[in-house]
């Protein structure tokens, strides 16, 4: 019987980004996905869940997803995995981007491990397949638990929408191709947590997402 993933969504930063505390119920080992900021809120959620964080996962390099990663790594003393190396310029410029958006204290973050298509990421006894899904950013990745029929999609796909492609490195055609070629084939029963807004399912988006019709 595969272990069950559990998740708590913690909205952070003025962008209300869905930082996710993701954990393995069997081992109480956890990962923090996309700690954009508001570390006190993230640490309170960790304490409330009673889990041990073993890593930080980044789906991509934008300020609202990665702005708090360096500080959280320093506090928790855990490695950072992801995104794909193509987002290195975004991660290298986090202090400047933060200043432009009025987010103080963002630091450059260099992951301990870059993620590539076909890699796997573990959280406790959970295993996630890595899909490289460029378009919203060049190095965006999606993490998929095929056993649990669950995906962490960052800003690639939203309920009823898709990621912005008007930011540096964005490419609308590449984004739609990523969704149609990599996410839709996962199956209609796969549930996902996006980087902003409510959760959804692949089936719901296949039927009703106006960007995919």
Automatic annotation (TrEMBL):
The answer on whether this UniProt entry bears the keyword Endoplasmic reticulum reads no
Any idea where the Metallo-beta-lactamase domain is? 16-196
The alphabetized UniProt keywords are: Hydrolase, Metal-binding, Zinc
Concerning InterPro entries, the annotation shows:
MBL_Glyoxalase_II, Metallo-B-lactamas, RibonucZ/Hydroxyglut_hydro
Does the keyword Hydrolase feature in the UniProt annotation? yes
Q: Which cofactor does it need?
A: Zn(2+)
What name goes with this protein?
Answer: Metallo-beta-lactamase domain-containing protein
Kindly list the organism's lineage: Bacteria, Pseudomonadati, Pseudomonadota, Alphaproteobacteria, Hyphomicrobiales
